[in-house]
Amino acid sequence: MFKAVLMGQTEDRQPVMTIENLEDSFLSADGEVIVRVRYAGLNYKDGLCLNGQGGLIREFPRIPGVEFAGEVLKSQDDRYAVGDQVIATGSRIGEIWHGGYAEKASVKGDWLVPLPKGMDMRQSMIFGTAGITAVFWSSVT
Questions:
Q1: Given a cut of 70, is residue 110 above it in pLDDT?
Q2: Contact in structure between 38 and 70 (CB atoms under 8 Å)
Q3: What is the pTM of this model?
Q4: Which of 3, 42, 66, 95 has a CB 3.0–4.6 Å from the CB of 56, allowing a cystine?
């Protein structure tokens, strides 16, 4: 079991947010890597999801959270081993795929990147998507 923020909708399509204890089977079944989420960002897109605006979440219930950092718990992807520290951002995570506002997340291996050297998980979420992009850009130039 794990705790998660869960977005739902009332009959008149109003957003409802709750904190739930969920079974591991609730995780996205097509995920290749299960991550213990340690930190999650909060940005404009998350605000839209949490307020039911922008039509970003179309199927309910959904765990929101478009970016997160954590440690690999289980992997079917050879690029990631148990204990690896990773970041997930983009790929419509938290919109059409369960996101990072939970203790666990299950995602495709292609949606993960290793935590950059010299950065801890907390920092990666403080900087968010733009900061992570800058770190990767500076490492290739």
A1: yes
A2: yes
A3: 0.89
A4: 95
- Provide the phi-psi class of 65: left if phi over 0, else alpha when psi is between -120 and 50, else beta: left
Residue whose token pair is 């733009």: 130
- Find tokens 């419509």 and name the residue: 92
Query: Containing domain of residue 82, as a range?
Result: 2-140
Indicate the residue type of 11: E
Q: Tokens 């919109």 correspond to what residue?
A: 95
- State the DSSP string of 92-107: TBTTTB--SSBSEEEE
C-alpha neighbours within 13 Å on the C-beta side of residue 79: 10
Contact status, residue 115 vs residue 35, Cβ threshold 8 Å:
no
Number of separate domains in the chain: 1
pLDDT score of 103 more than 70: yes
CA angle 19, 23, 5 (to 5 degrees): 20
- We report the CATH number of the domain holding residue 132 as 3.90.180.10
* pLDDT tens per residue, range 46-61: 988 998 888 999 999 9
Does residue 120 surpass a pLDDT of 90?
Answer: yes
pLDDT for 126: 84
